[in-house]
Design brief:
Length: 95
Amino acid sequence: MAPLPLVFLGASVSRLLPQLLRPVPSATAAAAAMSTAKTLKSVDYEVFGRVQGVCFRMYTEGEAKKTGVVGWVKNTSQGTVKGQVQGPEDKVNSI
């Protein structure tokens, strides 16, 4: 009995091998691409005071959408509001 050909998702390995062995971009090219990307930032926060029952979460969500950042916000059982905001560093700093 002849051995079965190796198959990867219906294609023979010999046909896929050249695609799987493509050259990896150099470290210099990767570093250049990373240097042009914006620095991302993530901040966890907790707000104390009268922040529940005054639409603080809704206000925070609206400001985040206007600014172009993402995250979450929730009331806690201790009467505070906790959240996290993520995005480009300059936008996170502005919110």
